[in-house]
C-alpha cells in the first residue's frame, strides 16, 4: 500500500443486514406439478409462463394468491424454451431471494450509515445487470432496485457476470418505481436520474447525503415520468462521437463519483 493510500481513512462498507441469498442452479422448472410445487415451496419466481389456450386454473389461482404475475403465451414460445413435456407451464426460478427495500433503508439509518441506493429502470440485458451489480457491491451500494416487470432475469449468466456479487448485495423488486421514488423521498433520500436529457453534469451534484441514483434502459434510457419525479437530473459529459455509454459503464462512473465524494 502506498503512503498516500495509507493516509486516507478507510472507506466504510455498509452494514450487510441480511443473510447471503441462496442460489439455485435451476433456471426454470416445467410441467404442471413441478410448477405447482415450486409455487407452494415459497421460492422466488421471476417469470411464470402459462400456455394461453390451456391456462391451468390451479396454477393461476396460486400465482394470484402469492402475487406472482403470469404471462399467457402461445405454445410456440414455450416450445422455444424447452422441447420437453412442459404441459403448458414454465416457471423461471430466481437465483436469489429478494430483499424488502423498507428494511434496507431502516437498517441503514439504524446503523448510522448514509443510504446509497441504485435504481435500474428497465435494464434488461443480464450481462449489463451482472456487471452493474458487481460494481455496486464493490462500491458499497446498499441495494439495487428493479421493477417487477421489464427487468433482467437474475439467472446463471447474471450471477457469473456479477462475479458472485449478487450473493451479497440486496436486490429489491418493486411493482411501481414511481411509488418507490415517493417512498425514498419520504424517507429522506434525494433521487438523481442519470440521463442525457440533463443540462447539469454528474460532477455538479452532491452525493454525500442519502441518495438514490437511477439508471435507464439500454434502449431508451429513463422514462419521462420517472425523470419528472426525480429531485435532480444529471448527465455524464462526453467528448466523442458515439451517442452514449453502455449502461453498466455509465453506472460505474456515477457510482464511483459518489464514492469519491463520500471518501473526501
TrEMBL record:
Keyword set, alphabetical order: Methyltransferase, Transferase
Annotated GO biological process: methylation; RNA processing
Residues spanning the signal sequence: none
Matches recorded under SUPFAM superfamilies: alpha/beta knot, L30e-like
InterPro entries per the UniProt record, alphabetical: Alpha/beta_knot_MTases, Ribosomal_eL30-like_sf, rRNA_MeTrfase_TrmH, SpoU_MeTrfase, SpoU_subst-bd, tRNA_m1G_MTases_N
Domain RNA 2-O ribose methyltransferase substrate binding: 28-99
Pfam families: SpoU_methylase, SpoU_sub_bind
GO cellular component: cytosol
Cross-referenced Gene3D superfamilies: 3.30.1330.30, 3.40.1280.10
MF-aspect GO terms: RNA binding; RNA methyltransferase activity
Designated name of the protein: 23S rRNA (Guanosine(2251)-2'-O)-methyltransferase RlmB
Name of encoding gene: rlmB
Amino acid at each position: 500500500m502506498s503512503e498516500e493510500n495509507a493516509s486516507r481513512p478507510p472507506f466504510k462498507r455498509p452494514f450487510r443486514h441480511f443473510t447471503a441469498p441462496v442460489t439455485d442452479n435451476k433456471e426454470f422448472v416445467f410441467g404442471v406439478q413441478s410448477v405447482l410445487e415450486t409455487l407452494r415451496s415459497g421460492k422466488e419466481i421471476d417469470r411464470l409462463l402459462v400456455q394461453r389456450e390451456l391456462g391451468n386454473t390451479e396454477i393461476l389461482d396460486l400465482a394470484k394468491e402469492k402475487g406472482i404475475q403470469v404471462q399467457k403465451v402461445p405454445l410456440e414460445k414455450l416450445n422455444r424454451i424447452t422441447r420437453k413435456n412442459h404441459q403448458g407451464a414454465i416457471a423461471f426460478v430466481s437465483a436469489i431471494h429478494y430483499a424488502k427495500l423498507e428494511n434496507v433503508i431502516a437498517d441503514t439509518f439504524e446503523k448510522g450509515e448514509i443510504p446509497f441506493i441504485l435504481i435500474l429502470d428497465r435494464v434488461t440485458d443480464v450481462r449489463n445487470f451482472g456487471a452493474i451489480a458487481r460494481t455496486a457491491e464493490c462500491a458499497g451500494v446498499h441495494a439495487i432496485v428493479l421493477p417487477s416487470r421489464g427487468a433482467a432475469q437474475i439467472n446463471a449468466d447474471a450471477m457469473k457476470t456479477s462475479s458472485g456479487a449478487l450473493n451479497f448485495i440486496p436486490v429489491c423488486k418493486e411493482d411501481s418505481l414511481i411509488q418507490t421514488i415517493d417512498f425514498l423521498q419520504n424517507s429522506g433520500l434525494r433521487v438523481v436520474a442519470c440521463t442525457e436529457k440533463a443540462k447539469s453534469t454528474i460532477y455538479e451534484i452532491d452525493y454525500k447525503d442519502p441518495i438514490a441514483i437511477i439508471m435507464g434502459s439500454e434502449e431508451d434510457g429513463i422514462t419521462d415520468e420517472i425523470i419528472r419525479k426525480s429531485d435532480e437530473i444529471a448527465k455524464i459529459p462526453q467528448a466523442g462521437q458515439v451517442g452514449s455509454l453502455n449502461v453498466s459503464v455509465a453506472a460505474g462512473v456515477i457510482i464511483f463519483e459518489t464514492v469519491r465524494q463520500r471518501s473526501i
